[in-house]
Amino acid sequence: MAELNRPDPDALLAGLKQEEARLNKGRLRVFMGMCAGVGKTYAMLEAGAKTRWEGMDAVIGVVETHGRFDTAALVDSLPTFPRKKVEHRGSSITEMDLEGLLARKPRLVLVDELAHTNAPGSRHPKRWQDVLELLDAGIDVYTTVNVQHLESRKEAVEAITGVPVRETVPDSILERADQVEVIDIAPSALLERLAEGKVYQGDKAARAAENFFKPDTLTALREIALRVTAERVDRDLRAFSAGRGGAKAAWNTNDRIMVAVSPSPNSERLVRTARRLAASLQAPWLAVHVSDGAELGEKDREQLRKNLALAESLGAEVLTTADTDLAAALLRLAASRDVSQLVLGRPRKGWLGALLSGGSLLGRLTREAGDLDIHLVRLPRRQARRLRGLRRLRLLASPAQYWYTLWLVAGMGLAGTVAEHLVGYRAVGFLFLCGLLALSLFNSLGPVLFGAGLSALVWDYFFIPPKYTFIISTSEDVLMIVAYFLAAVITGLLTHRVRNNQRILAERERRTDVLYRLVAAIATGERSQTLREVSNLLGGALKRPVAVFLPGPDGALMNQSHGPEPFILSAKEEAVAGWALSTGKAAGWGTSNLPTSDAYFAPLEGRHGAEGLLALRGAGGPPLSLEDEALMKAAAQQLGLSLEHERLRLAGREAEKLRQSEQLHQALLNSVSHELRTPLTALLGTAAALQDDATVADPVRRHGLLKELGSAGGRLNRVIENLLDMARLNSGVLEPQLDWHDPGELVRLTLQRLAEPLAGHPLKLDLPAELPLLRADFRFMEHALSNLMLNAAAYAPAGTPITVTARRVGQRLEVSVVDRGPGIPPEARERVFEKFYRLPGSPAGGTGLGLHITRSLMEAQGGTALVRSAPDGGADFVLSLPLSAAPPPPVEPGP
Amino acid sequence: MRAAPRVLVIDDEQAIRRLLKAGLEAAGYQLLEAADGEAGLRLAATEAPDLVVLDLGLPGLGGAAVLKRLREWSRVPVLILTVQDSEADKVALLDAGADDYLTKPFGVPELLARLRVLERHRLDVQPDPILKMGPLEIDLAGHVVRKAGREVKLTATEWHFLQVLARHAGKVVVQRELLKQVWGPNAVEHSHYLRIYAAALRKKLEDDPAEPQWILTEPGVGYRLKAG
């Protein structure tokens, strides 16, 4: 049992790592109170002043004294960092100067009112985001917050006080805090202070007392504040017992919670419920939205975004998908993400809706859910819902569609008057039904329902006796018209659903297609082209200008877009882009970071930070749909990984190049010691010998020595040529100059230059006169062939013949050099062409470069070099080049 | 005719200058030496040499620049010394007015042969209408070529080809120049014409067409009719 109580080493290690990560980040201390006036700011200033006395570089970022004298006195004891002026609609507001503070980099910044909303045009909409950035920059922060501003407590506080809370901070910021201090004061004492005017002055105090500062309210708020702290203490304790330090080391249950989020404001409540459930179970949770394909109105879209952003800020993973079958989509997501508990609002669909969508959501979920727990959350009824429904119908169709429907019904009415004489008034109903069916094929739900109602009325009024009244005389006709109306409506609804499904399918297909093409574009091709292609595809899919920006070698953003059209950044956008690149967070238009920018920047996330930015010019158009946003993020992620991969690969290649060049250096040194010195020794020795008068006088010896001089010089020259060519090949500056050459002449000219080193071997040439012309670089060919000839001369025993053959083999020309040497063993026939490879047992000297150069020279001309075994055991080296189309014969001018 | 033709050697390498001095003075030339381009140009202006040997790889004012400045006012024959690097560079130099080139490392006899050809071209403003080399006799005025006394029938193009080479006998004729003169300015890229016609001429004129003695290929640069 003792085993079990011992701390888990992994948890300990995780704790240590977290500690380490924290060392690089600033520490956050939060002073929390139940409401205004408890003395949070005072406590914060006091703590700040204390650190100042201890010699720490503490400054006030922003503090509101609200005219309280004791607070103002404390403020004077600390340096205040000047606020920055923000112009907004003519008036100027002062805000905390985040940029200035980041540049100044004090050790500690005091930031009052964490929940404050920044003036438009600031870097972040909320002050708590400023604080996070300060922390990320390694600056400690002391801050104050009231419990009602905590996202998860907002509702509870609203219920108690009846005052809506507008400004909130995510709970995660409390989790980030290293220390949370509750500034507690008894409600009676607080009320006393309020009465003395220490909290608010004048009539503001009276108003506050009416709304907020009632003893029972304060008691309830105090309880909430204390409970928040208690929960934190409880969690710290648990974290401590799990190891030490780290707060949320690992989820300790197998639970995973999923909450279904809709565009309704009620969903906020659902999200908070799910978050509480997740927190109490210490389980991860996700928030999902299933779109039914219907286009959302401006307001709904905004609300949905808010709901999902709330979930994200509360720590949920957010997913969106599209499906007309809500139940199926939820179950699919639950299964794929191992969800154990599902949180839903109580469905509000009526029996008709349930019938049309294949059974009530709840019924289907409970039937098909398997071992999924379902939590139903009661939601307050809201009248606005209905109105929204109507607006949705209107949104689905343009006024023109209603107008056409009106004319269609009128037309059917006219046709009906003609047909009535032939088939009777009841059959006219079927005529109307046919028209309506046709209508539902091309129109959306609204006009179809409108047409159904209108045509029923027209039928009744003009055709069903008694005519020109809405009265129906027979019960059969009543049945007829009710059946007609129902059939028309149901047809309309069903067609609408089918078409909606199709639209979703088509949309999803389009997205999948775009994504597929994106991935394909990313996977292949040269980089700048890939980037252009991706920008192009995304820009097409999102119908907005899109471009990719990459950082330059110094890490700063290069002012160069990779897109189909130039994407020019303003100075402001450039700053936003720079921020996004350095922090690796999305920024700009539509985000909570610097949202006043016209462009949106998504980081191309690799595993080690942003590899670049995907930029989208958004301002002026509607906000991106959730799906579009997901597409953009997916593209950014794919691209980021691929860019990172490429960067790492290039770095690897660079390292390999370096290694090879080191090897080359080594080989050069080796060959300097042998290849260069041998002929040099011969030269110097011979020159010395020639200074001897007796030697010079003897014509035979003199002649021999002079010949030796020449041969040593030639050998030195060849070594130098090889090394030079190797260096050129390595640096990539060797470009073949292709020209037409006669292969036989080429071989002969080469051999002429080698007459002296090849003197020990009889040459056999097989060079047919009628070989086709060869398109090659003469010097490349000469060098390649020389290397082969010299090898043959070096490895084959003296006196054995070397055969040089040129012949046409299919569409290639082959020049082969056959010797009678030991040959190359089959397993080494590829390796001999590798750089620095030398066959074991090779004679001393040689750099192991000759054959490598030979092959490289041939490959540069589009050919190759290889070796096979000669019939009588020696090596048969072959230079092979493709033959180009035969050149047209020159036109013989007239005689 | 002056007794000793004067050669101006412009080369920054003392070793090369020493080698040339030894070789050329032994062959009866008088030597002027310059270690850099400026000095070379000065000497060329003040001394009016009969021939110039110019190293391409000069420090400061490069060989190509020296050649360009020299050609602005002088037609003195220039032989370029170059390391075997790029044929394109050699062609560019010949186009820029150099008369011939020699690749380092070279032998002194080769250098002397080239200088002899240049000298002859300098002196013979009107070249001898009948060129004789070994068994070959090219009569430029009579449009006839004879081998060992017997006339060899050439097509019009073959004759034209040979004529261009013969007019510059001993000197290299750049590929493009040959193509332009024989086939016109549109043919300058069709180097394969030259291969075909050179082969045809060798077949008719050389003893062993595979090992030509007279119609020589300068790989990547052009052709040279060996002076007799």
What's this entry about, in short?
The complex is a heterodimer of chains A (895) and B (228). Chain A is of the alpha/beta class and 895 residues long.
General description of the model:
The complex is a heterodimer of chains A (895) and B (228). Chain A is an alpha/beta fold. Helices cover 53% and strands 15% of the residues of chain A. In chain A, the strands form 6 sheets. In chain A, strands 2-5-6-1-7 form a 5-stranded parallel sheet, sandwiched between helices. Chain A has a 5-stranded parallel sheet with strand order 10-9-8-11-12, with helices on both faces. Chain A has a 5-stranded antiparallel sheet with strand order 14-13-17-16-15, sandwiched between helices. In chain A, helix 18 runs antiparallel to helix 19 (425-442) and helix 21 packs parallel to helix 24 (626-690). Chain A is flat and about 135 Å long. Chain B has 228 residues and is α/β, with parallel strands linked by helices. In chain B, the strands form 3 sheets. A 5-stranded parallel sheet of chain B has the order 2-1-3-4-5, with helices on both faces. The longest helix of chain B is centred in the middle third of the chain and has 16 residues, at 108-123. In chain B, 38% of the residues are buried. The model of chain B has no long low-confidence stretch (mean pLDDT 86). The chains are: A alpha/beta (895), B alpha/beta (228).
